[in-house]
Amino acid sequence: MDDMYRKVEEALNTIRPYLEADGGNVEVLEITDNHILKLELTGACKTCSMSHMTLKAGIEETIRKAVPEIKEILSIQN
Hints:
The chain is an alpha+beta fold. Helix content is 51%, strand content 26%. It has three helices and three strands; from the N terminus they run H-E-E-H-H-E. It starts with a helix and ends with a strand. The model has no long low-confidence stretch (mean pLDDT 88).
């Protein structure tokens, strides 16, 4: 699981500069045993009206290419 976490973080690091430029970021909350990735959008991304598009078009696509083992990606709002 540590290897999968590392791959996810590496994938996210490729898009974090774009999120940070808009005052936001993304945090990995959990990767479950059945390969479900739980993320939380933070900062400006948390309340942005475009956050759903950011998650679907940017974050999910990037992770699915880099870590195809991930079966599902969920955005958790804490």
